[in-house]
Amino acid sequence: MKAMILAAGLGTRMRPLTDHCPKPLLKAGGKPLIVHHIERLRDAGITELVINVSHLADSIITTLGDGSAYGVSIAWSREQTPLETAGGIRKAISLLGAAPFVLVNGDVWSDFDVKTLAPLGNDLARLVLVDNPAHHPNGDFHLDRQGRVHVTGQPQLTYAGIGLYDPALVVSLTPGHPVKLAPLLKDAMNDGYVGGLHHRGQWFDIGTPERLTALQSHLSQA
What is the residue-level pLDDT of the chain in tens, covering all 222 positions? Predict the structure, then answer.
């Protein structure tokens, strides 16, 4: 199985930290955020990675290289301008192949073990959901008792930025166009093709300097 790490965002909410340093290379716990993902995926047995880059792309590629220093193989998907989540996945399809893959947002941190993601079966996606953080109190989706994910329903949980995906979810998109992932997921939910699970462990959305500081504090106490 392969994994894709989304690292093409502009990091505007992290400014001024990201004026000269791409967000994936900001450090917490003594290492760049993206290295936490690489090491956790490697430890789960996933060593073939695809990473999309745009803002300050050369800095990320130069730092990580081909991934051999971390025990993985990295294929790079360059975007001249960010293509949003679904557009970025569509551009990288030739690198990902036709099999389901793990998708991880580059700006989250979690102790979630991707080995616990069950096979997709007939689903197009299996999402990891977490309790709603203070900055996102209304959540994103509803997870029912059968492990199905819905657009509506209570309680709502927050998408953790981690999931297992079938490339079929995006393969019909026109390459090179910015497309958000959420509308595609909602359509798939309405058709009954999205499962999920509730992760009750550690999770951080590192969207602002303050949240990066919170992660740093957590890791320093671990």
Answer: 999 999 998 666 666 666 667 888 988 999 999 999 999 999 999 999 999 999 889 999 999 999 999 999 999 999 998 899 999 999 999 999 999 999 999 999 999 999 999 999 999 999 999 999 999 999 999 999 999 999 999 999 999 999 999 999 999 999 999 999 999 999 999 999 999 999 999 999 988 889 989 998 899 886
What domains can you pick out in the chain, each with its CATH number?
2-217 (3.90.550.10)
Torsion-angle region of residue 176: left (phi > 0), alpha (psi -120 to 50) or beta? left
Gap between the Cα atoms of 158 and 164, Å rounded: 16
| pTM of the shown model | 0.95
**Distance separating alpha carbons of residues 109 and 177, to the nearest angstrom:** 28
